[in-house]
Amino acid sequence: MRFTFITLSILLFTFSITGVALADEASEQTPVIVEPDFLCPAAEQLARPGMCSWIGPGGHAARIRSYELPVDLPAIPVEQPAPVGLPVKRTYARVATDAPVYSHPSEAGKEPLRLIGIGQGVGFLFVSLSNLIVYEGEEWFKVNDGEYIRRSDVELVEASGFQGVEVLEQPIRPFAWLVRNYDARLSPGGPINSNADRLFRYDVVHVYATEKVGDWNWYLVGHNKWVEQRNLSIVEVKAPPEGVTGRWIEIDLYEQTMAAYEGERMVYASLVSSGLGDWPTNPGLFQVYVKLLEDRMSGAFAADRSDYYYLEDVPWTMYFDGGIALHGAYWHNGFGFRKSHGCVNLAPRDSKWLFDWAEVGTWVRVQGRGEQ
């Protein structure tokens, strides 16, 4: 959210009010830009644009007026793959309390095979489930071969149905996902546009222009539809890392987005969730060094292990930076926001697409900073 996109109409408007003296084609003189040295109120600048500076409140008002979009806005050159059901075939659950695991329900009350959550807290512990059986009137889930857990000790979770987009042709302007439901404004920082439909989380929009008001950028996403930057995650075309050819992946930590490229051509993009707080995802240039259809992940970083996590059968995992991986996340639907212990979380459909597309050795560039 740190670029300024300038349309052709803005450029033409800039030339009209700054008094650009173009050099004769036969000469080698540098063009001279004459900028008035005084500011104007908005009304004065709109009435007499050539007499006023391009900065200040008058300049701001003039730029806003210059953002005239065509009546029929161009289509965003992306397409969401047809949903054919979630690719995850397992049922998952959060361990809701300290939970013993037994070799069979008949062993309940004896020494368990292992404990999930005992002494570690119960906030971030997930298991995958198979059979549900009833033994002596009590429901049990089979979690692995020869392992059973009480039905009352877990809460079923539903994996996110979100998916990013296939990019049909190289975008000529940035596009973005809404990450919050939002009522667009008539102008940057202005009143709600009551004639515009409400924008909803995961809607995809074009970005036509940028204005900064206070600490935040505002983006023009349609006719008189301005959105403040904390409500969007933006994707824009990036050049490949030096020396990288073929397929590569771009992770933007600030925007919380991912884009897949074939050479210079963007072919897929989506939202991610990277490392939060004390567990950052490291910027740098890496390569996928192993791919796993499923992996069990657990660990803790705090000395008191208060941040302990345990995740069974994490799908479509690709490690690229030590213990940091791109992988599916079935336990949340917060994509576009930082949530992980350092890995790059993807919605299940996105992780399956990326896993099938990438190879061991595919380059991964992580850029930006992980906090707002």
The CATH C-level class name of the largest domain: Mainly Beta
The number of helical elements comes to 4
Major sheet: order of its strands?
3-12-21-20-19-27-22
CATH superfamily of the largest domain: L,D-transpeptidase catalytic domain-like
The CA-CA distance between the termini, in Å, is: 10 Å
User: What class would the helix/strand composition place it in?
Assistant: mainly beta
Number of domains: 4
Task: Kindly summarize this structure in a few lines.
By secondary structure, the chain is mainly β. It has four helices and 27 strands. The chain folds into four domains: 8-66, no CATH class; 91-157; 174-235, SH3 type barrels, CATH 2.30.30; 247-367, L,D-transpeptidase catalytic domain-like.
Q: What would you note in describing this structure?
A:
- By secondary structure, the chain is mainly beta.
- The chain has four domains: 8-66, no CATH class; 91-157; 174-235, SH3 type barrels; 247-367, L,D-transpeptidase catalytic domain-like, CATH 2.40.440.10.
- It contains four helices and 27 strands.
- The chain has helices at 8-18, 42-47, 56-66, 348-357, and strands at 20-21, 32-33, 78-79, 91-95, 99-101, 114-116, 125-129, 132-135, 138-144, 147-150, 154-157, 165-167, 175-178, 204-206, 209-213, 216-222, 225-228, 232-235, 247-252, 257-262, 265-271, 284-287, 290-299, 309-321, 324-328, 344-346, 363-367.
- The strands form seven sheets. The chain has a seven-stranded mixed sheet, with no helix packed on it. Strands 4, 7, 11, 23, 24, 25 and 26 form a seven-stranded mixed sheet that branches. Strands 8-9-10 form a three-stranded antiparallel sheet, with no helix packed on it.
- The protein starts with 7 loop residues before the first helix and ends in a 5-residue tail after the last strand.
